[in-house]
Structure formats: structure tokens, C-alpha cells
Amino acid sequence: MGVVSLFSVAPEGSITSPKGFQAGGLHCGLKKTNRNDLGAIVCEVPAVAAAVYTTNVFQAAPLKVTRESIASSGRKLRAIVVNSGNANACTGQQGEADAYAMRAAAAKAFGLGEHEVAVASTGVIGELLPMDRVAGGIAGLPAVLAEGNDGAEQFCQAILTTDLVKKEVCVRLAVDGREVLIAGAAKGSGMIHPNMATMLAFMTTDAAVEPQALQQLLGATTDVTFNMITVDGDTSTNDMLVAMASGLAENRPLAPGHPDWEAFAAAFRHVCENLAQAIARDGEGATRLVEVTVEGAVTDESARAIAKTVIGSSLVKSAVFGADANWGRIIAAVGRAGEPVNPETVDISLGDIVVLTGSRPIPFDEEEALVYLQGDTVAIHVALHNGKGSATAWGCDLTYDYVRINAAYRT
């Protein structure tokens, strides 16, 4: 029996489904609309925490605060406070002071130590936070969480910017004979080309997990899920992925070697992959999810580089938007990825429609291809016949609306 069959999706689950977690959100005035713009996840016990962050040289102030909290607390967290509408990035010493002030305010509001709190922000770069509004909003969060009504929904709405839909998923599995839940929530639809992290994503689980094992699993899983999506080729200043494990399922702590480790890792990957695909599907202005699978590369790493080059090509993305079966753009992207490729052995197909064999075009039904490319999901398969490496990347088409949305982002 494969490990994938050892977990199942919990359709009604959310980030508050794992034992010990509450969440909530409210509007504090950072957005011009009345949509929620401030939220929190709180755990009733110190939760083992792991995180990955953007590698953009210009890192937003909240990343420094969160790094410090996790390091100073022995890789434990009790709460994450998140705002949207303002990235608090490139805001100098005042921005850093404001991020620390957010942490202090949340710690006071929930009766926690400051190093038990992580901070995340998303939104416009280069503007200072209106801290009077933020502080007032944080003070009101405990009451919102205490109400317990649609807390996960409120939180998901609070972290959105240009997103059209919330992104959340929950799975269940058995560990040591006990039910364990893993859940996640994310935001992101623009400035999406992660590098060692994702836009903003948060994961909760009630499994007991060894701290080092959770960090290693998070990093490895990010590489094959969140780091394999792209919308526009831009890596944000604020990308952050944080995972918290309450341990309240009372299983023996998970780590490699535990009998249920592989099943837990597979379920963990499913959550990350589902969220990553949801982000790609919700790309700004997108009308189609695009999936690129590369097989037969010299290594998995080489396959990843080629898949991301294809999925990130503006010409490929434009062709998908136009439902144009222009395989020339695909093979050109494969050839410029900077990875070993035999120019005589490449096969390409669009769904089940084969358009290239042995790097030579073959006749195909253009009308059939048009119909396929007009669907809401487009799968591009590239077989290199050059090794055993494989990878899959996700992205979206490039539309007129992407330009419209980003031309007026600040207004």
C-alpha cells in the first residue's frame, strides 16, 4: 500500500481543525475597503515551529522578527499575527520598530511572551504602517478568537490582497493509531516566483514532531511544491511559510525512522502542493492553471530548472492564454534553461495531444488542440530521454488583466 493512501482529505477542515489552534480576523483600517486586513493564529500550548523565508535581498521587517522569535524560543511559537494591505518592507528602522511593536502588542493581547509570537505582513512596499490602527486591531483580536465563529474563514480573508479566492486545505491520517490533522492556509496571486519560501502560507498540525525533523521536512517539501510555482517571475520581499505542530494528538514524536514518518511526509506534501496549485490557479488575471511536467532529465534538480523555465516563459504563458498550440515556444524555453538537453530526443505533448517526437514535429489536430487549450487546466509534458530526473511546476496564463491589475496596484 502506498503512503498516499494512508491519508485522506478533510473537506470541511481548516487551520483551526488540528487540536489546540484558534484563528480569527478583523478589519482595522489598512485596506480602503471593509475587508479583513488583520488576523492571528494562536495555539493553546507552545507549538514546535519551522519556517522558510524569501531570499530576496530586500527582506521585510517582519521576517527578521519572526526569525528571532523562533530562534529565541527554542523553535516554539504560540501565535502568528498577520496584516495585509501594507508589506512593511523597505521601511527602514521605523518599519523594524513597528514589526517589533506588532509582536509586543500581540504578546500583550494574548498573554504570551514576545518570543512566542511571529509576525507577517503583505501588501504595498515602502509605506509605513499606521500603527495606531494596527495596535487597536491587535487589541481586538482576542475577542474575535473567543467568539469562535468562522475563525478560519476570518483569518483567510484577512491575509488576502489581490487574491480572488481563499486558499486552504486539511488532511487527516493515523499516527501511532491516533488521528492526526495537517492543515494550511495561504495567500498569493501576484509577485509569485518563490525562492526558498512562498508568498504567505501557514500550516498547523496536532502531530508531535521533532523540531529538526519539521524544519527539514518543511524545506524539502517547499522545494518541490511552493518553489515550483510561478505567476510573473517576481520574488516578493515578504515571502514566508510557517508551520506549527501542537503535539496534542499525543503520538510519539515524528522524525525519520518513525513507522508513520513517510505517511506524515506524504500528507504534509499534499497540503503544500494543494496550496501551491491554488496560488498558481489564482494568479493575477489568470484564466487557466498550467502544469508543466519534465521527465528524463539528468537529475531532478535539472528537471526542476527546465520545468520552471517553461512555466515562467511569458511567450508560453501568452500562447496558453490565446489557446495557441505553439510548441516552438515550449522547446525554445527548454533549450534556454541552461541544463543538459539532447536536441535530438525531446518529446512534447499538450495533454494527450502529441506535438513533437524526437525533437521533430508530427501532425496533430489543431482544432482538438484549440479545444484542449481553452480548458481551465493545461498540462504540458516534456520528455527529454536524457536521464531519470523528473519534476512538475505550476503556473498560469498571462492575460490582459494581469497588466491592468498591476498597473494600478497602489491605487
Can you walk me through this structure?
This protein is of the alpha+beta class and 411 residues long. The protein has helices at residues 61-72, 92-110, 131-147, 151-158, 211-224, 261-281, 300-312, 314-321, 327-335, 366-373, 400-407, and strands at 7-9, 21-26, 38-53, 76-86, 117-124, 167-175, 178-187, 200-205, 240-245, 289-297, 347-350, 353-357, 360-361, 377-383, 389-396. It has two domains: 3-281, L-amino peptidase D-ALA esterase/amidase, CATH 3.60.70; 289-407, ArgJ beta chain, C-terminal domain (Ubiquitin-like (UB roll), Roll). It has eleven helices and 15 strands. Helix 7 crosses helix 9 (327-335). The radius of gyration is 22 Å and the shape is globular. Catalyzes two activities which are involved in the cyclic version of arginine biosynthesis: the synthesis of N-acetylglutamate from glutamate and acetyl-CoA as the acetyl donor, and of ornithine by transacetylation between N(2)-acetylornithine and glutamate. Heterotetramer of two alpha and two beta chains.
